[in-house]
Specification:
mainly alpha, elongated
Length: 320
């Protein structure tokens, strides 16, 4: 303000002692015009600065609001990420447990497959040995056909061996088929387990959301109930304090309450549990206190009048 006044300071007044009245009036008007122009220029500059300051203040306020909004969004983002992290950890734990269970099942199935393959190799080896033994017998028979008179017995033995071989081959094929079926079932079971795992994860995520919502509602209801209980407790304390004050005043007003109310001054347990009886007794005590206060006020008024009469009598004695 000092710089503004110094910049737009009005010109110094020049004494015009020898000038005429009209000249003095014109000089005064000129000075007033210069002062008015300086004042207008100062007002304009001040209004410009005020507008600039207002724009700066608006910009700062907008930036502050934007910063607060960004902070709120960042806080929400952190909460969402924390919630997703918990859900992902729980889902990972469930998947790990299910994976371990499936690994144990796969190991068990592999052991069964290994046992089946071992049995198949044993049977195959037996078939190979039988084939070799058959070839050996055929060679012996051809080389020494004259020494074997019991050809029918040899043929029956051959047929029995051939039948045994056919049975063993059928058993091998059956075992291979069973092994293939077990492999297919294992693959299907693995795929079905993956699907069930995904379904369980989805159900768990939905259940988690419902559970969190229920927890939030429960906490809100508990807070409301606690607030109501606190309010009730405060009201009970106020009522108890009021009743105790009334009892104290009542005892100070009268000593024999039982005679005035024609009943014991102390409430029984049943009356203490009955709010209506307690309220009725409290109202009776208030009425008695009111009567005592009125009597006390009238006594005070009578005492004041007697004092005034004594003072007038003393003044009359002194005057006589």
């Amino acid at each position: 303000m000092e710089s503004m006044n110094s910049e737009y300071e009005a010109p110094m007044s020049v004494p015009l002692d020898r000038a005429s009245t009209a000249t003095k009036l014109l000089e005064m008007r000129r000075k007033m015009g210069e002062v008015q122009r300086a004042l207008d220029a100062g007002k304009k500059k001040y209004s410009d600065k005020e507008e600039i300051f207002s724009r700066r203040e608006d910009n700062l306020r907008n930036k502050d609001l934007e910063l607060q909004e960004a902070l709120v969004q960042f806080n929400r983002y952190l909460k969402r990420n924390e919630k997703k992290l918990r859900q992902a950890q729980m889902a990972a734990d469930n998947e790990r447990k299910q994976k371990e269970q499936k690994i144990r099942e796969i190991a068990k199935k592999r052991q069964e497959i290994f046992a089946k393959k071992k049995e198949w190799r044993r049977l195959e080896h037996m078939v190979e040995q039988n084939e070799k033994y058959k070839d050996f017998l055929q060679d012996v028979f051809q080389q020494n056909s004259k020494d074997f008179d019991q050809r029918d017995h040899i043929m029956s033995r051959y047929k029995s061996l051939k039948k045994t071989h056919a049975e063993l081959e059928a058993k091998r094929i059956r075992i291979e088929r069973e092994t293939e079926e077990l492999s297919q079932k294992l693959l299907q079971e693995s795929k079905a387990q993956q699907v069930r795992s995904l379904e369980l994860n989805n159900k768990y995520a939905k259940s988690s959301k419902k559970f969190e919502k229920i927890l939030a509602e429960k906490s809100s209801e508990m807070a409301k109930i606690e607030f109501e209980e606190q309010g009730k407790a405060v009201r009970r304390m106020k009522v108890t304090s009021c009743v105790m004050s009334i009892d104290n005043l009542y005892r100070r007003c009268c000593e024999n309450e039982a005679k005035l109310l024609n009943k014991p001054a102390v409430l029984s347990k049943e009356e203490e549990m009955d709010p209506d009886k307690m309220v009725a007794l409290t109202i009776k005590k208030l009425n008695i206190i009111h009567t005592y206060v009125k009597d006390f006020a009238s006594i005070v008024e009578m005492w004041k009048q007697s004092q005034k009469e004594k003072e007038r009598a003393e003044k009359a004695k002194k005057a006589s």
